[in-house]
Amino acid sequence: MSEHKTYPVPETIAAKAHITQDLYATMYRRSVDDPEGFWAEQAERFVTWFKKWDKVMDYSYQADDLYVRWFDGGKLNIAYNCLDRHLDSRGDQVAIIWEGDNPEEDRKLTYRELHAEVCKLANVLKSRGVNKGDRVCIYLPMIPEAAVAMLACARIGAVHSIVFGGFSPDSLRDRILDSDCQTLITSDESVRGGRHVPLKKNADTALTECPNVNTVVVVQRTGGSIEWTEGRDIWYHEAMANAATDCPAEEMDAEDPLFILYTSGSTGKPKGVLHTTGGYLVFAAMTHKYAFDYQDGEVYWCTADVGWVTGHTYIVYGPLANGASSLMFEGIPNYPDVSRFWQVIDKHQVSIFYTAPTAIRALMRAGEEPVKKTSRASLRILGTVGEPINPEAWEWYYKVVGDGRCPVVDTWWQTETGGHLITPLPGATALKPGSATLPFFGVVPALVDPAEGTLIEGPGEGALVLMRPWPGQMRTVYGDHARFVETYFRQYPGYYFTGDGARRDEDGYYWITGRIDDVLNVSGHRLGTAEIESALVLHPHVAEAAVVGYPHDIKGQGIYAYITPMAGIEPSDALKKDLVALVRGEIGPIATVDIIQWAPSLPKTRSGKIMRRILRKIAANEIDTLGDTSTLADPTVVNDLIDKRANQ
Ligand code: WT7
């Protein structure tokens, strides 16, 4: 079985790697035995502090008194760390390489240029009354202004909340309201795969219900026509033209908030994951340098969108803190054609390439020719993130894209974790296709038997928890600390519960098996079944909806919805279409329901709880292993669903 295949560290990589196998072992031991000493050293190495901290770490994982603090008393500014401190040594080095959707369009910004832009926008924000601690919503395409906006907020101590440009007006509205943002930075339109998306129009729609937003800064991306609200809306380029290029970097406390990022959970609306300043930056910089073995002068490309945490940590904060040249791509993998990624790698001489399994699987379908017609000789390290990668896709990535030369780092982490927690280090870790391998420094994973609640020793499978904090950990759910406690610390007392299941093999390697809560991972995008169900039941013809994931060749998981229509409503294809459109409209195109099955009734326990386990099995066509159905109020419902599934 390919699971047992192991790829040793290539000697050429180990020869100049930051972390080799022995060093990993000693450093890991130290990080666990002496976390205070270890993290103090890393914090000195990776971050420039205005004032040193009083205490390295302080925490309690007890549900009734839950808190996590790192580098308390320390003072720093993240924009200063990502920009100012590089100006003397690398002011003229490229910080951001922007590759447009259209292959003819690109831009480069040096550290000096980026610094000037960030200072100008920081002054613009200040002139509109944005103060330290205020929340600023960013709803932008993948253009350099997105990074400028993030860093401008960080420079003045404003808290950014980025909303992915693919989200709907309703999703944008909910996020703006939840964190009470009074400023929004957006653009006229975005461009992806040659198509324009009306971001400003979406924003206008969202803002009809956000009375507190008093400023909308609009970047002109396409020149498409937009509506204008006098007094509220200002053009980015006009405001920037008059802004000064110097702006002091606010002294922030290590535990001051840096950003909020909404992510889906198993219940209710998306929650605002809050990250703070000092620990996050130390962790972002350190994981970026070591997991990718980033070497000075290399061009590094992460294909994520800044609307996700991957874009925050591994396009902007980590790479720029390390003085890297970070490539930012506006487009999609198959435009103008399926060779685009590889062409961009050649064009900009990319050394490190970081993408998602869903993209790899989709490109794998297009065959080797679009890859092989490019050189890719600049590549040194490959990475994946977002969902489990199947060994076949891993092998293809390794052999075809990397020509068997480049280690593949399969990095496991979450919005909540701020950065990589389980990942190979290219010069230190032998690779097994499909395994995220071993914990990063300071990270202590464990497996818990979900039924017994006891820790599993040695090889085994269970719920993946973390036994102690790491500097990049989220600190709370914005405005709802109780939800933070309930979501992550209630189920397995004393531990942070990740929501994932995992297996540990005889070498101590971790194999993430996927979510074990009601969260779906569709093309690496996280969606709660509850959110999708809430959207579906908005339809007047829907009595009840139950959503589960099912295995999908490209997306990893697809969305499968069981719908019980209102009495007297005839199921129809037209209604199916309406429902798909409804969910896309409520959440965004990433929430496209793949399969709708009509369900005259749903399998429920006697207490009325839907048994999703059974629905998941039927959706996956695993009807031989349905398990116990005797606790159902009406077991015949199941056979009926199975018959219907077969007939659709
Ligand atoms: C969930 C977190 C972390 C940035 C992107 C997603 C899944 C993530 C891996 C991986 C297996 C992975 C997990 C996790 N996941 N990386 N390398 N192998 N699963 O962030 O939206 O917060 O989703 O993505 O299920 O819990 P996110």
TrEMBL record:
One of its GO terms (biological process) is acetyl-CoA biosynthetic process from acetate. It catalyses: acetate + ATP + CoA = acetyl-CoA + AMP + diphosphate. Acetylated. Deacetylation by the SIR2-homolog deacetylase activates the enzyme. It is an enzyme of class 6 (ligase). One of its GO terms (cellular component) is cytosol. Its cofactor is Mg(2+). Keywords: Acetylation, ATP-binding, Ligase, Magnesium, Metal-binding, Nucleotide-binding. Its EC number is 6.2.1.1. Belongs to the ATP-dependent AMP-binding enzyme family. NCBIfam families: Ac_CoA_lig_AcsA, PRK00174.1. This is Acetyl-coenzyme A synthetase. It comes from Thioflavicoccus mobilis 8321.
